[in-house]
Amino acid sequence: MDKLKVAITNMQKDIKIPTGIRLLIRKCCHAVLQLEGMSGNFEVSVSFVDNESIRELNRNYRNKDAVTDVLSFPSGEDGKFDINQETGATMLGDIALSIPMVYKQAEQYGHSIRREFAYLTVHSMLHLLGYDHEQGGIAQVRMREKEEEVLARLGLQRDASYVHEDL
């Protein structure tokens, strides 16, 4: 990969974004593209939003009137993406992250804020590239494996808190 531009905008004001999170998000986006063997110049937009905003996006674009943790809006379909006419970069799409949900889920799943930010970013990047887990089955397994591979490469693999005692 030649260049990756990750534009990050904080559209919420209630929760301070920890130092280093923006760099982590950029590393996650880069690691996904690297895992996928993609070459060229790319652009991704990431917005930090509150629960009201993500609920509105979810309602407007997915007809689901509920708060969610992250939404992905690909700019392409079937591996064909829009091109930024000014830069020539492939525009992968937009990611909206609910900052309150990042914190809630990190506590709920018993891992760090960094890992939750990373997981949701990797998850969304895979959606932008066409991966889908919604139908379950092998597609869901494949997406989960890729998520965990990227997180492991970044040193954020699952820890013992994910292992069920009966397994």
What count of helical segments does DSSP give?
A: 5
Please indicate the count of domains.
Answer: 1
Mean pLDDT: 90
Low-confidence stretches: 160-167
Number-wise, the strands total: 5
CATH architecture: 3-Layer(aba) Sandwich
- Taken in chain order, the helices and strands follow as EHEHEEEHHH
**CATH superfamily heading:** Metalloproteases ("zincins"), catalytic domain
End-to-end distance: 40 Å
Largest sheet properties? 5 strands, mixed
If you consult CATH, what is the topology?
A: Collagenase (Catalytic Domain)
Topology of this protein?
Elements: E1 3-10, H1 21-35, E2 41-49, H2 51-62, E3 70-74, E4 82-83, E5 90-98, H3 99-109, H4 113-128, H5 137-153
Parallel strand pairs: 1-2, 2-5
Antiparallel strand pairs: 3-5, 4-5
What does this protein look like?
The protein has 167 residues and is of the alpha/beta class. The chain has a single domain (3-159), classed as Metalloproteases ("zincins"), catalytic domain (Collagenase (Catalytic Domain)), CATH 3.40.390.30. It is 43% helix and 20% strand. The protein has 5 helices and 5 strands; from the N terminus they run βαβαβββααα. It has helices at residues 21-35, 51-62, 99-109, 113-128, 137-153; strands spanning 3-10, 41-49, 70-74, 82-83, 90-98. Strands 1, 2, 3, 4 and 5 form a 5-stranded mixed beta sheet that branches. Helix 4 (113-128) packs across helix 5 (137-153). The longest helix is centred in the C-terminal third of the chain and has 17 residues, at 137-153. It is globular and about 35 Å long.
